[in-house]
Amino acid sequence: MAATDQTRILSLYEQVSYTSDTGGDVPTDSTGGLNLGTALNMPRGSVFSTFVQSHRRAAKDLCDVLMSTSSPIQLMELAGRLSDRLNENLFIYAVSFVILHKQEFRNLRLPSIVEVFPHKFVPAEELTKMQVTVNKLPPNQEAQLVIEYGPEFASTNLKPEHRVSYWSEDYGINSHHWHWHLVYPAEMDVPGDRKGELFYYMHQQMVASYDMESLSVDLNRVEKLENWRVPIRDGYFSKLTSNNSGSAWGTRQDDSLMKDFSRTDFGLDFMDITVMEIWMSRLMDAIHQGYMMNSNGDSVPLSDNVTTGKLGIEILGDAFEADASLSPNALFYGDLHNLGHLMIAFTHDNDGAHKEEIGVMGDSATAMSDPVFYRWHKFVDGIFQEYKMTQPPYTLEDLSLPNVVVDKVGVLSDNQLNQLTTGWNLREFEASSGLDFNAPNPVMLRITHLDHAPFNYHIQVTNSGAAPKKVTVSIFIAPKHNVRGLEMSFMEQRLLWSEMDKFTETLKPGKNQIVRASKDSSITNPNEFTFSDLGPRPPPAADGSAPPPANNEFNFCGCGWPEHLLLPSGKPEGMTYQLFVMLTDYEKDKVEEPKGPSKCANAVSFCGILDAKYPDKSPMGFPFDRRPPPILNNEMVTSVADYASLGNMSLTDITITFLNNQLKK
């Protein structure tokens, strides 16, 4: 697809980003008889939230219209004609959805959401300071304009949970969350293999990563938010704005109570906490009965030990998220996950008496910055874990791989064995792509973020079979000790195991040496394209040869855990983690895939593959998604070391040291 097509599409994002978001009278130009449905009902300048069913319906109506285009030029012409009639956030969501999901547009790339909406990632005060600086510049003076931001972010360390704000407010994880819900939207008629299970697993891994980061700064693991009748201990003040005009997100004071929702200005029906409690009770009943009830009154079995049809965890995920088009019975099991986000987001003004804006928990691009996100999703994961505990433990046959032995595992970074380092790094975005500072030069946003020195896994394996053996290599990491400094049992450590990588390897008979770079992880998105990355391509070289293609240019969708947060920070004095490596039989793991290149295949563990099956039959999180068998090889299973006694698994202690300075990468 021509570079000019990409440039045209980028102009749509810039056009919308520069609008004033002030609402007012809509232009009178015709929509050409297009049926935009409820998309026209969302006021300009208001918050668009995929957690709200009426907002999802508006997005569906708009996306249906935009999906009818057959070329980037048609998309731009139609979208450009509609942009000033529509809510800005809704418009950007819909254009991004179409670019990502429409087959004809697969070679177009989405710009970073940080550049499209910088106000969702940078406090208003910093943006205002830069505007004042620009206003004071003498005419025609060229100066580098840079907004420096981080790592203290929106709060001090007086509150314990603020000690990990550098992580929760990181641009990468919030951008990833926005992208994930764009790849796997609710109620948008998008086929997604094992979508409900991916919802469970991706969010479970988010909470595990947050818990690991908390342990790195000597905090307890996050507590689930399961009692909605007691105050929420921790408040949150994001300092961000919900639109380009500076409208602030709602804030939550310490010890705020969730209250029944009774606003009429957000497209949301009145909602009682009691109803949420009923939904939770029905989900728990279904888990322990072993089935859900569909809208016809028929039972839908819940089991992960099935060879056909959906896994129970997928059915439960569809009902819990909830996607009304996939839930067995949306009216009966409700919309618990989404409504939970919204009830928390409106604790400060549940009845609209103060005309305050929704809080950051109401937007997928900002929700992860609020510490209560992890409390809410610890509760969500608790429901899924309740189900997982009803599934039988894996057997020796499930866990072992005959004729394959992992002899030795290590990680190497800067010639240091099993010694990894983290520190700070810088990432630049062009803030003036999304905000019009009326500056003579681009206004850059320079964010300080956690990062790690690159490293390689070295895995020595013996294949004692007579023929080559194709295997799946899975790598996990978890802290070795709890907050009290004690080694953790299997069950205490089970939900801390974070997937680091998963890939296939063919073992020749005899000794094998596997080397895998951390940058190739199956969970991460190594790049996030900026407007300048996606702008006009450089001209041909002097010899007439074409310029080199952009990195991952035709295999990118923006979904994936940020590569710079692959590792937890560790401690300045060093912190011990355990590296778990497992090899399984690829012939048992593999799924049939369509031929040809895969779209969005750079972060398959969390994001799957667009328009294809999830590339691994085993349950996500295997082998830590279930309780262990009580006995394995005639020995009691009390720790993960008992799993590692099997030849195809290995457990290695490594140390992660936080240097608290800028890394050289």
From TrEMBL:
Keyword annotations from UniProtKB, A to Z: Copper, Disulfide bond, Metal-binding, Mitochondrion, Secreted
PROSITE patterns found in the cross-reference section: TYROSINASE_2 (PS00498)
GO cellular component, one term: extracellular region
Metal-binding listed as a keyword: yes
Entry protein name: Prophenoloxidase
Taxonomic source organism: Cherax quadricarinatus
Gene3D superfamilies: Di-copper center containing domain from catechol oxidase, Hemocyanin, C-terminal domain, Hemocyanin, N-terminal domain
Pfam families in the record: Hemocyanin_C, Hemocyanin_M, Hemocyanin_N
Keyword Cell cycle: no
Origin: domain of life: Eukaryota
Region Disordered: start-end pairs: 522-549
